[in-house]
Amino acid sequence: MVPESGGIVPRIMTRGRDGLSHAAAPAYTRGMSCLFCRIVSGEIPAKKVFEDDDVVAFEDINPQAPLHVLVVPRAHVATLNDLGDGHDRLVGVMVRRAAAIAAERGVAARGYRTVFNCNGDAGQTVFHIHLHVLGGRALAWPPG
Ligand code: 5GP
Ligand code: ZN
């Protein structure tokens, strides 16, 4: 079982794209062992709908709605709990990209949902943060 990011795991201090020094994600989820890092690098194929220097967006392999895209940062961050001050711009970029994708897919006016799942109770299964963009049907609330 993969331990949660808050557990006792080796941490590596890195200087990120933002120029800030901060704890990198646990070694067991970074790089080649992380599914979404491998999709970002192109090693594992995905139906990419957008990419720039900050993020990659691709179709979810198991879509839960007519629109189900994941917006993923190129930089590895395991969970929302691992975000720091230096990530504020990146999170803004992710959210604005989700809104742009919803607009491109024609669901902006009728509505859509964005979701970050964090850790076990929320059902996070891939420990590289990703913003779900769901739309194209009425979405129940509260979620299950
Ligand atoms: P989580 O449950 O961690 O919030 O969401 C992970 C999402 O990644 C799920 O919706 C799942 O369907 C999707 N996913 C898992 N593996 C792959 C994959 O190999 N390719 C793509 N495109 N999506 C994946
Ligand atoms: Zn990763």
Description of the molecule:
It is a single chain. The chain has 144 residues and is α+β, with helices and mostly antiparallel strands. It has one domain (13-135): HIT-like (HIT family, subunit A). The chain is built from three helices and seven strands; from the N terminus they run ββαβββαβαβ. The strands form two sheets. Strands 3-4-5-7-6 form a five-stranded antiparallel beta sheet, with helices on one face. A two-stranded antiparallel ribbon has the order 1-2. It is globular, with a radius of gyration of 15 Å. The structure holds guanosine-5'-monophosphate and zinc ion.
Count of alpha/pi helices? 3
Main sheet overview: 5 strands, antiparallel
Tell the overall outline: globular
Radius of gyration: 15 Å
Round the mean pLDDT to the nearest integer and report it. 86
Q: Classify the secondary structure makeup into a structural class.
A: alpha+beta
By DSSP, the count of extended strands is 7
Q: List all distinct small molecules, including ions and cofactors, that are bound in this structure.
A: guanosine-5'-monophosphate, zinc ion
Layout: helices, strands, pairs:
Layout: E1 13-15, E2 21-23, H1 35-41, E3 48-51, E4 55-59, E5 67-73, H2 88-104, E6 112-115, H3 119-122, E7 131-135
Antiparallel strand pairs: 1-2, 3-4, 4-5, 5-7, 6-7
The chain binds guanosine-5'-monophosphate and zinc ion.
Summarize this entry quickly.
The chain has 144 residues and is an alpha+beta fold. It contains three helices and seven strands, in the order ββαβββαβαβ.
Short key terms for the protein model shown above:
HIT family, subunit A; alpha+beta; 5-stranded antiparallel beta sheet; 3 helices; 22% strand; binds zinc ion; two-stranded antiparallel ribbon; 144 residues; disordered N terminus; binds guanosine-5'-monophosphate
